[in-house]
Amino acid sequence: MPIVGRFAPSPSGRMHLGNVFTALLAWCSVRKVEGKMILRIEDLDPERCTQEYARVVREDLCWLGLDWDEEQTPQSGRTGIYERQFARLQEMDLVYPCYCSRNELHAASAPHTTDGRLIYSGVCRNLTPEQKAQQKKKPAWRIKVPEKVFSFQDGLQGEYGENLAAECGDFIVRRSDGVYAYQLAVVTDDGLGHVTQVVRGRDLLSSTPRQLYLYEKLGFSAPQFYHVPLLLAEDGRRLSKRDGDLDMGNLRERWSPEQLLGYLAALAGLLETAEPITARELAAIFSWERVFTGDIRLKANEKFL
Ligand code: GLU
User: Fold this and answer.
1) Is the entire prediction scored with pTM above 0.85?
2) How far, in Å, CA of 51 to CA of 55, rounded?
3) Distances in Å between the alpha carbon of 297 and those of 18, 114, 238, 249, 301?
4) Which residue of 186, 205, 206, 207 sits with most ligand 1 atoms within 8 Å of its CB, as the best mutation to test the pocket?
5) Domain 4-77+229-302 superfamily per CATH
6) How far is CA 106 from the centre of its chain?
7) What is the rounded CA–CA span in Å between residue 140 and residue 2?
8) What is the DSSP letter of 238?
9) Which CATH topology does 92-183 take?
10) What is the pLDDT of residues 102-145, one digit of tens each?
11) Ligand 1 contacts CB of residue 8 (under 6 A)
12) Distance from Cα 262 to the centre of ligand 1, integer Å
């Protein structure tokens, strides 16, 4: 079966070095085996995402030589599609409205996972119809999770799994403002796009058991996952879109695409030294076996490249 991969950038700012690093590995992995690449703009959140950033993301990918074969409709235009999947979960009696306020959710007694995520207690799971009728505000919608471990073999990070009831709790699939949650949208889009390979940052590793559960319930087959290292600033912080020094606007003023790709390839473990290289040349020598698994801290003199 041909490999189908995807870029899934969120246009909430200009891509930074870490986003480009992930996109490069995703692209090389697909192009190495002459698979198909999909671009999907993840602009679910209307408050954070803009059309202009989406345009610039496409333009930056082209500048790097990272092409795609098909563009899925951006997430902002796919609400009807998510609605249908949500309705299927409702028919299976898997979702329920949650009226908890932020303060209630973050109460001091609320249990947390080791990486700081809140484990939802399930208080709204058993509200009676009368209790629901008394609520004044619009609810978020949560999916009931089972007492079951969802695990998978990550192509880079090895085996990872979570018991959803014990380690996560019922999670949100639709926000109280009506916006569908990332977990539901990403599974729907990758499922309907027949994506077979997902390459993304290691920060999303712990989302994957929740997504596996949704894959199962919605009847899609799950892709192979590769969670790639994050690039960290010299003080150990994750790069963010606010880190303007490392965004593509800045990088493009100082570097050619080949220099930047060579630098990223050396950081990834694909080249011994940061020699300029084209994306096509890099795809030809690409191998997951050579890619580092742990997060990569940039050195002080690399901060401004
Ligand atoms: N849109 C997410 C991001 O830009 C990626 C989500 C995913 O790859 O599943 O970080």
Assistant:
1) yes
2) 6
3) 11, 22, 9, 21, 12
4) 186
5) HUPs (3.40.50.620)
6) 24
7) 38
8) B
9) Glutamyl-tRNA Synthetase; domain 3 (3.90.800)
10) 888 887 677 887 777 889 989 999 999 999 999 999 999 999 99
11) yes
12) 24
